[in-house]
Amino acid sequence: MSATQAETLLRRLREAPAVLVTVDAAQGSVPRDAGAWMAVWADATLGTVGGGRLEFDAIAQARTMLMGTPAQGADATGGSVLMRRFPLGPSLGQCCGGVVHLRFERVDAADLDFLRGRLLGAMAPVALFGGGHVGRALVQVLGMLPFQVRWIDSRDEIFPDAVPANVVCEHSDPVQAAVRQLPTSARVLIMSFSHAEDLDVVAACLQRQRERADLAYIGLIGSKSKWASFRQRLMQRGFDDSELAQITCPVGVPGIAGKEPEVIAVAVAAQLLQIASPRITSPVLLADSQAKD
Questions:
Q1: What pLDDT digit, counting tens, does each position of 30-65 carry?
Q2: How much is the pLDDT for 97?
Q3: What distance in Å separates the CA atoms of residue 190 and residue 168, rounded to the nearest whole number?
């Protein structure tokens, strides 16, 4: 679920209470995994827990809670929380075959701080260095995905007036100084306006990996020839082959052609979504060349 949807939920809760429906657990083949959520008001919904009859029944149950009707299975909170099990078989007209456990919680404006931490705090951290064409396109794509983005540039005036809810703009001069303050498990994307800045940020990331080994991904925009040049310079700075293997250059999932900023942004975002382990140990080569931001 995107930060934009979470912010929409928080904003609407200031006006009216809702029931937050969350996939608490899932077994077998199911349409959405644990953590997926949907908010239900008397006249609207936001998000999804899987669609079909499952979602239809979940909305009906949520609106029953909103009307204050005692719910079977409600816990000791007086009906504010309900757990229900939904087998996705013939009874629901869905052939997935799995089982979904949904949690229903009545929430209102008093729950804003708690919900903000719960819905936004679990998003994966991304550090994006560079406010050029690709950076701007990427920020818009990441704004729809479950990431918390720090958008960093040495030029303070480069940032637009409006950015997605999950993006924080940060001026850093020198730009590589921001690397030491990045959160653990950050995914780092390097695409500044300058090859010199790119090199300094890559070196700072490698130094941090040498000291802490806590960055989940380091991606550098550019061509194979650019990376060959960077490899030589980084080795002159004392980094060895095993350390350099932590850099992904070019960035983006393979098989997506095109050098337009929007195309590169989609390929890069898709690669970030593929990251499951805390470390990237080998480079992924996308294409012979890539547009320089």
A1: 888 888 899 999 999 999 998 888 899 999 999 999
A2: 66
A3: 16
33 DSSP assignment: -
What are the DSSP E strand ranges found in the chain?
Answer: 18-27, 37-40, 45-47, 81-87, 99-107, 124-129, 147-153, 167-171, 187-190, 217-220, 247-248
Peptide bond into 125 cis (omega under 30): no
Both tokens assigned to 188 = 């780092």
C-alpha to C-alpha distance for 200 and 223, rounded to whole angstroms: 18
Q: Maximum Cα–Cα distance for the chain, whole Å?
A: 71
Angstrom distance (rounded) from CA 224 to CA 205: 20
Per the listing, tokens 């937050």 go with: 20
CB 115 within 8 A of CB 107: yes
- In one-letter notation, the amino acid at residue 2 is S
pLDDT in tens, 252-289: 998 888 889 999 999 999 999 998 533 333 333 333 33
| Angle (nearest 5°) at CA 120 between 270 and 101 | 85
Query: Distance from CA of residue 120 to its chain's centroid?
Result: 10
What domains sit in the chain, N to C, each tagged with a CATH number?
A: 3-118 (no CATH), 123-274 (3.40.50.720)
Q: Percent of the chain scored above 90 by pLDDT?
A: 61
Residue the block writes with tokens 């593929």: 274
Entry field: residues in the chain = 293
Contact between 92 and 57 (Cβ < 8 Å) = yes
CA distance 197 to 193: 8
Confidence at residue 193, expressed as pLDDT on a 0 to 100 scale: 93
Backbone phi and psi for residue 29, each to the nearest 5 degrees, phi listed first? -80, 115
pLDDT at 98: 81
Report the distance separating Cα 195 and Cα 143, nearest Å: 26
**What single letter denotes the amino acid at residue 64?**
T
